Amino acid sequence: MTGRWADHEASPDTAAPDAALPDAAQSDAAIADAATTGGLLRCWFRETGVRVPDTGEVRIPLPASGTALVAEVLHRSPTGHHRFGSVRLPGGASPNAVTVAALLSLEGSAGNAAEVTELLARVADSQQRTTRHLRERRDSPEGASTPFLAAEQALVLGHPMHPTPNSRNGWSEQEAAAYSPELRGSFALHWFAADRSVVSSDGGPQARLEGFTPEVPEGTVPVPVHPWQARSLLGTKGVRALLDAGLLHDLGVQGPRWFPTSSIRTVYHPDAPVMLKFSLGLPITNSKRENLRKELHRGVEIDRLLDAGLAGELAAAHPDFSIVRDPAWLTVDVPSDSPDGAESGWEVLLRDNPFGAQQRAACVAGLLAERPELGGSALQQVIDGLVERTGESRQQVAEQWCARYFDHLVAPVLWLYREHGVGLEAHQQNSLIGLDGDGWPNGGWYRDNQGYYLSETRVAELERFLPGVGIAGENRVDDAVIDERLGYYIGINNLIGLVGAFGSQGLADERRLLALLRARLREFSDLPLAAGLAESSSLRCKANLLTRLGGMDELVGPLETQSVYVDIANPFAEGESAA
User: Fold this and answer.
1) pLDDT over threshold 60, residue 13
2) CA distance 517 to 496
3) What is the per-residue pLDDT for 211?
4) Do 255 and 189 contact (CB within 8 A), yes or no?
5) If 133 and its partner were Cys, which of 12, 80, 156, 471 is the partner (CB 3.0–4.6 Å)?
6) DSSP string of 396-411?
7) Average pLDDT of the chain to the nearest whole number
8) 80-107 burial, b if ≥16 CB within 10 A, otherwise e?
9) Which helix (H) or strand (E) holds 223?
């Protein structure tokens, strides 16, 4: 174990009730509190390495506070996706999620009061927003306009392995209603007309936005801005100077309404050929969501790399897998506010939109997300439908489903890294799975311009497609760093998280799924990343609670130091006995 936590022992096994999804009869506030507490405990157990018993209670000594927490174990998950019942102090009192966060933080913060205070504020904010998500969904159960959007809006409880998944400090209630995917928000964009002399762009963004932009004065370029972002931009000295000089014109909010996707700052319109990814100076999970110039260049470089021949090779090997491209961007340069070539806050990325009204594609995180207001996840509905149609058991269907999932979504990602040294940060929110009419996986997509890694040892091979690739995007990375990052994102967040969802929702035996996926990983045994996932006794895992306590922004600084990583026991090893 690594990290700043003390070693503690779990209590002996005792009998425990069966695992269950949150009780829809509970109040929304109670469900949100339980979900927040569960996320904190899952993070704590993962990041300390303490084993949770199969049944009974687990005791967490808290020497810094002179007390302890005792949690009822409803489901012990080999993947760390445990489910807990009541949580109490030794005297019998039941602490709320903020109190639990305070007690755990004092154990891991090395006495830094500012870190603890910041975390507690965000835990409280996240819990309150989760309560509202549940209330609004219970009051307005109608669905989204497309299957793609439905999955993007499904993360009502947020990331199950994060201490503050729904925190959005800085948004009012009214802003949250308009801008939150969980609340099915929608809004028109704020448009500006910028003189061409103050616009930087690449990839022909105007042609891609044709039909969705307002008319602008001759010699200017239409620039879309997120309405929340526009308010802060208009308050800066440099932008006011551009307006006063006639180099920038405020056209106001107008045009069709767009829908926020699961990332919040990327917006979607079913009829538009592109999605728009904005810069938002809003802390969400582990970072402020702002577009960096190197990330804009990275998206365009990968688009050109694919066009130069890599897409053809990928399609030949895996015809049902695609990369959602980020082929264009634009920004307004505000010299007085930022150095030449640096971010001004106006950066907007254009992402291809292959997801029409009939395309049955789902963000993996949204597909797996628990939905207390509906009594189960979309995954549960899919599996139950397949059980009814096939006559097979849930376990049999789950194993077949996971095998197809790996083949359509994970195998292409591993192939691309093995054959070409291109790593994709394919975590559950960046990965989309296609489903056929019955619900079986039949295709996959990867998205995210931030998450491309180019192996430094293989980049010469990639330059046969595109000379200089990875320089402007600053994503030529040492193989050891890529293996650590992709080991977490592909292995732990994606695959192990998938198994954890099946197990914690009562859909399958996790060990049997782990054994199945381990066998699939062994088919790529010549790739060190896959071999490490399948065979290592421990894995490097991003520690979301420690990262938050450290006040780290995982998009700032070198890739090697953006997050805290700890060693955890390899869950795939727990599946070996079931093989």
Assistant:
1) no
2) 9
3) 93
4) yes
5) 156
6) HHHHHHHHHHIIIIIH
7) 90
8) bbbbbbebebeeeeebbbbbbbbbbbbb
9) strand 220-225
pLDDT above 70: residue 340: no
First to last CA, the chain: 27
- Structural domain contains residue 519: no
Here the tokens at position 541 are 């895992």
Please indicate, yes or no, whether residues 36 and 121 belong to a single structural domain of this protein: yes
Tell me what pLDDT residue 516 has: 98
Question: In terms of domains, do 114 and 192 share one?
Answer: no
In the DSSP assignment, the letter for residue 329 is: E
HSE of 280, CA atoms in CB hemisphere, 13 A: 22
Amino acid identity, position 93: A
Tokens of 123: 């835990």
Q: Are residues 48 and 130 in the same domain?
A: yes
Q: Is the residue at 509 inside a domain? A: no
Helix H or strand E encompassing 296: helix 293-305
Name residue, tokens 């307004």: 332
Looking at the fold, whether 124 and 226 belong to one and the same domain comes out as no
Same domain, 285 and 336: yes
Q: Residue 232 has which token pair? A: 């802060």
Q: Do strands 83-88 and 476-477 pair parallel, antiparallel, or not at all (unpaired)?
A: unpaired
Phi and psi angles of residue 377, each rounded to the nearest 5 degrees, phi first: -85, 165
From 84, 115, 146, the end of a domain falls on 146
Task: Please check whether residue 163 lies inside any domain of the structure.
Answer: no
Residue carrying the six token digits 């291109």: 422
Tokens of 200: 């930087």
Structure tokens at 401: 């489903």
Alpha helices in 49-146 (DSSP H): 97-108, 113-139
pTM: 0.92
> Looking at the predicted structure, is the pLDDT value of residue 288 above 90?
no
pLDDT digits (tens, 9 = 90+) for 25-78: 689 999 999 999 999 999 999 999 989 999 999 999 999 899 999 999 999 999
Convert the pLDDT of each residue in 106-162 to its tens digit: 887 655 788 888 889 999 999 999 999 999 998 887 777 899 999 999 999 999 999
* Strand intervals (E) in 373-428: 422-424
As to burial, measured by CB atoms within 10 angstroms (0-12 exposed, 13-18 middle, 19+ buried), residue 472 is middle
User: Phi and psi at residue 568, in whole multiples of 5°?
Assistant: -125, 155
**Is 14 a residue whose pLDDT tops 50?**
no
The reported pLDDT for the residue numbered 30 is 96
Residues 98, 214: one domain?
Answer: no
How many domains does the chain fold into?
2
Q: How far apart are CA 20 and CA 506, in angstroms?
A: 7
The distance of Cα 364 from the centroid of its chain, to the nearest Å, equals: 9
| Cβ atoms 443, 434 nearer than 8 A | yes
Residue with tokens 């109608």: 142
Within a domain: residue 115? yes
Rounded CA-CA distance 296/448 in Å is 11
Q: How many CA atoms lie within 13 A of 242 on its CB side?
A: 27
Under DSSP, is residue 95 helix (H, G, I), strand (E, B) or coil? Answer: coil
Tell me which residue range forms the domain holding 62.
28-146
Asked which of 316, 351, 386 is the last residue of a domain, the reply is 351
Length of the chain as a residue count? 579
- For helices 528-535 and 411-420, give the axis angle rounded to 10 degrees: 130
Judgement on whether residues 343 and 209 belong to the same structural domain of the protein: yes
**Domain match, 195 and 342 both:** yes
Q: Are 107 and 62 in contact (CB under 8 A)?
A: yes
Residue 249 has pLDDT above 50, yes or no: yes
